[in-house]
Give the backbone structure.
Amino acid sequence: MKTTACQPVHIIGGGLAGSEAAWQIVRAGVPVVLHEMRPGRGTAAHVTDNIAELVCSNSFRSDDAENNAVGLLHEEMRRCGSLIMRAADASRVPAGGALAVDRHGFSAAVQQTLLAEPLVELRREEIAGLPAGDWDNVIVATGPLTSPALAAAIRALSGEEALAFFDAIAPIVYRDTVDMGKAWLQSRYGKGDGADYINCPLDKPQYEAFVAALIAGDKTEFHEWEQDTPYFEGCLPIEVMAARGVDTLRYGPMKPVGLRDPRTGRGAHAVVQLRQDNALGTLYNMVGFQTKLKHAEQKRLFRLIPGLEQAEFARLGGLHRNTFLNSPKLLDGGLRFKAMPRLRFAGQITGVEGYVESAAIGLLAGRFAAAERLGQGIAPPPGTTALGALLHHITGGADAKTFQPMNVNFGLFPPLPEGAVTRGNRGERKPLLARRALADLAHWLGPSRAAAE
């Protein structure tokens, strides 16, 4: 890395996207001022003062780079020298084929790395409104919990009302309060180490009683201004899913397929899975159990689940409002705000959903900002890569009239050449897309590889 004498890039927000953007910028030799409003101003979801705190699940989802788009995104980011992926790999905990992390070890690793970097200045302050006029290169990576004053300034500048949705947080259970006489250890279809999840089985009467209790449960009331805010379909509260039909949960987070109690050889009508949440293995989160139930009601209802009758909770579920931009209308292909190009946006506020996707957009914003500061040109990554497909979706590939948060998926990728996939090799479609992506990424990284290492 060669240090250059130049003005810093300002980054507002010390989450995953802001942290990744900072790392990419300083790797190019450009200084960064990272502004984080906590602890001076808290949020509805954060519980620590650490940057890169994980506020929901501890899972980065599938790590399969050949058959899963998010796993491919993991690999692309690793090849781009991602700090977020380096910290995730270093703090991973057992989770079958998924990449899950010890949340405290992960955020500590990110924070320590950035604080040890001489080109990074961390300022604990809220940016209440638009950034100062002499900040000519700014990345806004404030995430879904943007400061109200800054959000209001952005809305006023764009002439657009930012869209919003609710994102729910799953509870965390103390491992030693789970009754392993009723539950058992197993990964679905034996993936990973084969025993990465605690499985709590329900028979048909237990399941139907649980669904009825969820629907009737005492829930958090919304403010009047929140009534019409839509949920993100990939993170629905369990009681919302339950209300859609008695079997909805059995085909969602409580699906029993691929699981069988090794002590009896029998399956179950429905299963609640718990996934390890910290490196010590003392905490487990309830997979897919995001909820807006009141805290007392959560304790009562979740203790109806066999194996959790005596469960104690390190954290109960919660609900917070997320805001995001109508990015296809407001941002250009370099993530610049069309109404004020000195501002770039990164992370979840751009309308990507998920930890990895948020960090990926931070990675791109950081590279774009560093290149601009150094007077260098940089093309966006090819649309055939996971990074490029995600970027293209939020900056023009999606319909601005119906834009909603999106996880990376192979549906965002350009199709393979005609004839590449036939009836006889349909199972090769995803691996072929992944191989093409990594080959095209290598070509894109060629002239800028030094900034990634």
Remarks:
- DSSP finds 13 helices and 17 strands in the chain.
- The CA atoms of residues 199 and 273 lie 5 Å apart.
- Residues 9-162+325-452 form a domain with the FAD/NAD(P)-binding domain fold (CATH 3.50.50.60).
